[in-house]
Amino acid sequence: MPNIYFSHQPLLNHQSKIMAIRFSFYSENALTPDRAVNTLLPLLGNWLYGKRMTFLDFGAISFDTRLFDWPIPENTVIEIPSSALLGPQNAPLVEKLLSLPISLALIYDENAPEVLSTGIRFRFINFDAKRYTPEQIKKLAAQMLPHGLGVAFNVPDHASFQAYMSAGLNAASSWFFKHPDKAKRAKALNPAQANILHVLNLVRGNADIGEIEEALKQDVAISYKLLRYINSSGFCLSCEIQSFRHAVTILGYEKLNKWLSLLLATASKDPMAMALMHTALTRARLMELLAHELINPQEYDNLFITGAFSLLDAFFGVDMDVALESMSLPMSINDALLGNEGIYSPFLNLVKASEGDNGNAIASQAKMLDLTAQQFNTMQLQALAFADMMDF
Fold first, then answer.
1. Does residue 351 fall inside a structural domain?
2. Domain end residue (candidates: 148, 174, 200)
3. Confidence grade of residue 340 (pLDDT, cut at 50, 70, 90)
4. Strands, E, within 59-215: which ranges?
5. pLDDT digits over 265-278, tens only?
6. Count of domains forming the chain
7. Domain, as residue range, for 228
8. 360-391: per-residue pLDDT in tens?
9. 82 in the same domain as 45
């Protein structure tokens, strides 16, 4: 069976919070409904059944009734183009969709009004930002509002996101928030960020518990957030951690270092901090999963930190080399974060490829790590589920 890989992308709402994850399919051969369904069925045990919706973008697949012959999870939205629903040859598919209680998103084009006359109910109307300007979408969204909530995809930057939200859309799918405006970048870390890095460096240096506690007391919010992260369901502890000293006793310095790393995002004042945090957590967990049985287990925490820190430039608003200047990180982490060759680089390269639109790059990087498409797709779902479980 040909390998079919996923990439993933978040949908952000007006509050810049992630409301859904959009998966796009890439196949080494022509993608057919049978192959798509055979790819999805083994993944249902790891499906994102939580609070967020899951959009499925099948790309250039030949739509027919077979694509809907599987137990589609309730939170799943299937995107479908107008061309798949027009003409007598598509009448069986229209009839099928009229009878199914599933969520659909119509990919808008000039034929959309004709499709809407079929009586098929759409929960969302998708607009391609590469085809329609905010001004055009403002008019179209008003016309489409009775038929479904408006969503934009391929949104290039912050300004466009705001423009499409102002045009009446409900969400936008993109990674624009990973690339803050360079003109607004800071020249140094802010005091809260600097204090978190100070605590991290103390932990990495195996400083006395009392010294670390004293540093934590300088910012009570850090202590509170640290305990909240550790007690999140994603950590799966059998007892509640009550204090920093208790955390050291239960976890040890190495594990505590891993969770302290997550606090870096909380010091960001960027309105996109929540989306960045979810992305960093997904990267961190995916890095861990990819490394299993490929490198020494003692390296797993470093892989997690590499993923979590791979967005430091976006969190801090400074270039990556500036963000790393005051941190005592192993060379293997620094090399990966700065784009140099190293033991962690292949893992980070695959993680980044999974956020892109180049299926060949995903396949190439996955094969380099001797991973099948099913293994990698499963790991993406597991990493995203982990990020969903964390309390931030």
1. yes
2. 174
3. confident
4. 76-81, 103-107, 124-128, 149-153, 171-173
5. 556 667 788 899 89
6. 2
7. 191-389
8. 999 999 999 999 999 999 999 999 999 988 75
9. yes
